[in-house]
Design a protein that fits this description.
This protein is mostly helical. It is 55% helix and 8% strand. The chain contains 13 helices and 5 strands. The protein has helices spanning 18-31, 43-46, 53-69, 87-96, 101-105, 108-116, 123-138, 151-168, 213-221, 239-252, 256-262, 268-294, 297-326, and strands spanning 5-11, 36-42, 78-81, 143-146, 176-179. The strands form 2 sheets. It has a 3-stranded parallel sheet with strand order 1-2-3. Helix 8 (151-168) links the parallel strand 4 (143-146) and strand 5 (176-179). It is globular and about 75 Å long. 40% of the residues are buried. Bound molecules: tryptophan. Tryptophan (TRP) binds at residues 7-11, 42, 45, 132, 135-136, 144, 146, 150. Tryptophan binds at residues 7-11, 42, 45, 132, 135-136, 144, 146, 150.
């Protein structure tokens, strides 16, 4: 039996955060040993909000460089840009015709984003999950690593695939979600009750992967805590400290109990410094590699060209099968 197939992606918006790293990319890296991994940059999804074209191009290449600096190895994993593989948009059109308005209207992300971008509620925002379903189904993915917020889109993907298979016979593999542990749990440093977001406008709320060490230290030092001054895990009453503990635990591998013992009798100042230092040293190799890669556009181009070639070969197979089954003349 061949390796199981994984597909995941991130939109090409702005700066990645420590949350994206611990929640997604760092897990992707571990999975590339045991799975056939496809990691894409969802640049077509990025169009659902208005972008400055130069920024989009820059963000896309930066994200690619970050994938690779974080340890996604183009020799092991298939790394590509969604827009370079025509089958994504093509299958999305077909699947639009097998997805109901009612289903899409129930998507909480659509409701949230419509509220946030009330001046630009475009059709792409509405059919966003259908393009995502196409991304996944084209590769016959077994597993889709996503954050908690994408669970509903994955459920819809399964519904669309089952519906299609029921009409035309076995066509799509029904994918399972792989909800990543820490993903849902890296919270903002200033607002520890909401997810650390790359689009956060609150100063010092997010650690960006490109932040310099002194900035990282400063942000952790300023992070919101509570007045108890005891390092203890309690998300309800101590969301700030609990979040720092989760980060520390994700990087060092220490359990919550170990961390509580390690900082017994010490104040928050010491703890914050320890967390900042472990984050700084975890990110150091990534940042060094990133600075190197971003100076090397030829190498980045080689990666996305190779990736597009491989992804096109896989996705064309599925698309051809779909076209044949639904009655398009080949
Ligand atoms: N919608 C995802 C997000 O915003 C990104 C994405 C696009 C994706 N296509 C995908 C994730 C396919 C997993 C699989 O996080």
């Amino acid at each position: 039996m061949g390796k199981k197939v994984i597909l995941s992606g991130i939109q090409a918006t702005g700066n990645l955060t420590l949350g994206n790293y611990l929640g997604a990319i760092n897990n992707w890296k571990k999975m590339q040993e045991d799975y056939q991994c496809n990691y894409m940059i969802a640049d077509l999804h990025t169009l659902t909000i208005r972008n400055n074209p130069e920024d989009l191009r820059k963000n896309t290449l930066e994200l690619l460089a970050l994938y690779v600096s974080a340890g996604i190895d183009p020799e092991k994993s298939n790394i590509f840009l969604q827009s370079h593989v025509p089958a994504h948009a093509e299958l999305a059109w077909v699947l639009n015709c097998y997805t109901y308005m009612g289903e899409l209207s129930r998507m909480t992300q659509f409701k949230d984003k419509s509220a946030k971008h009330a001046d630009n509620i475009n059709s792409g925002l509405f059919t966003y999950p259908v393009l995502m379903a196409s991304d996944i189904l084209l590769y016959q993915a077994d597993l889709v690593p996503v954050g908690e917020d994408q669970k509903q889109h994955l459920e819809l993907t399964r519904d669309i695939a089952n519906r299609f298979n029921a009409i035309y016979g076995e066509t799509f593999k029904i994918p399972d979600g792989y909800i990543q542990g820490v993903a849902a749990r890296v919270m903002g440093l200033q607002e520890p009750k909401s997810k650390m977001s790359k689009s956060s406008t609150i100063p010092n709320d997010a650690i960006f992967l490109k932040d310099e060490p002194d900035v990282i230290l400063k942000k952790f030092k300023k992070s919101v805590t509570d007045s108890e001054n005891v390092v203890r895990f309690d998300t309800e009453n101590k969301p700030g400290i609990s979040n720092l503990m989760s980060i520390y635990s994700a990087i060092t591998g220490k359990s919550k109990e170990d961390i509580e013992k390690e900082f017994e009798g010490k104040g928050y100042g010491d703890f914050k410094t320890a967390v900042a230092e472990c984050v700084i040293s975890e990110l150091r190799p990534l940042q060094e590699k990133y600075k190197e890669l971003i100076q090397n556009p030829d190498y980045l181009e080689k990666i996305y060209r190779d990736g597009a070639r491989k992804a096109t070969a896989i996705s064309e197979n599925t698309l051809r099968d779909v076209y044949q089954k639904i009655g398009l003349v080949s």
